[in-house]
Write a structure and sequence with these properties.
With 73 residues, the chain is an all-alpha fold. The protein has two domains: 34 residues, no CATH class; 38 residues. 40% of the residues lie in helices and 0% in strands. It has three helices and no strands. The chain is elongated.
Length: 73
């Protein structure tokens, strides 16, 4: 799920009289878009086979294919 910058700005503490902001501390999201960590996913063999075949048809690596499913590329 992607959240627009405008929505994030509205959710910042005190913005637009948001009553929930008093319960939610201000957060630092500056490093959120840095993609320097790994996400490991264990799949059943049939799902791995399907990803392998789909990746071959599309001419891309499995990791690129999975990353695109998460909307990170």
């Amino acid at each position: 799920m992607r959240i627009s910058r405008d929505s994030m700005a509205e959710w910042q503490s005190g913005a637009n009289g948001n009553r929930l902001s008093q319960f939610i501390p201000t957060r630092d999201y500056t490093g959120l878009n840095i993609q320097d960590d790994q996400l490991r996913i264990w799949l059943p063999e049939c799902a791995k086979q399907a990803l392998t075949e789909l990746s071959e048809l599309l001419g891309m690596r499995i990791s690129v294919n999975v990353t695109s499913c998460f909307g990170l590329s």
